[in-house]
Amino acid sequence: MDEEVTKWLEDIANDKFAQEDIDRVLRYAKELERGLSKIRTFSQGVSIFGSARLPQDSIWCKKAEQLGYLLAQNGHPVITGGGPSIMEAANKGAYEAGGRSIGLNITLPHEQHINDYVTDEMEFHYFFARKVMLTMSSKVYVYFPGGFGTLDEFSEVLLLMEEGKMPKMPIFLIGKSYWKPLDHWFESKMQKTYKTINPSDRKLYKITNDIEEVVKAANKIGHRSIYDNIYNNRKPEIKIL
What we know:
The chain is an alpha/beta fold. It has helices at residues 3-14, 19-39, 59-73, 86-96, 127-136, 148-162, 176-193, 212-221; strands at residues 45-49, 78-80, 101-106, 120-124, 138-143, 171-174, 206-208. Strand 2, helix 4 and strand 3 (101-106) form a beta-alpha-beta unit. Helix 2 (19-39) packs parallel to helix 5 and helix 3 runs parallel beside helix 4 (86-96). It starts with a helix and ends in a 20-residue tail after the last helix.
């Protein structure tokens, strides 16, 4: 065992942590290690987020499938949460185009099971570990209509970019009718009334109905080696939008 790890474990023991907490920390570390090892097997692609509840014949699922297909055609790995609905549609498009279709699934007692259109998969127990992988594996972030989970994934990436904790990468919110009311609330309440965000913060994302914009952004960044992750060096900012 690495000396630093051994010392760290000794320090934890000396601080008289409960054994349950020590075991929990080790489970966190193991899941992160497994996840990081997994995403090093493919180059950074495009993460697509969205609802697990919309029917497959909805306009948004159809658009997600088209986007997955176009991205794969252009050589970009497609990464989703591996579940149904929007995630399944995006994976299906990438799969049918013969591309790399990745599903990073979360173990839940209901509604979330790995879909049939992934070429690479991994199961997660912890939401935070899964979100780290969905973030680090990507060069472009796409959010279709979704629920609290989608909103959580969007706001976390938005915060990390705003605070300079990760490089500024393209963020697309697909569906003007769905996302415009949220953007209006950001502007009217957070920006103008309470001044809790800056006007520039709303420039970190783009609301659009045009999935071709996502493909163009991914093409502009280009294809990276699996050994050349953007997050290995955070100094240069990549500004696409």
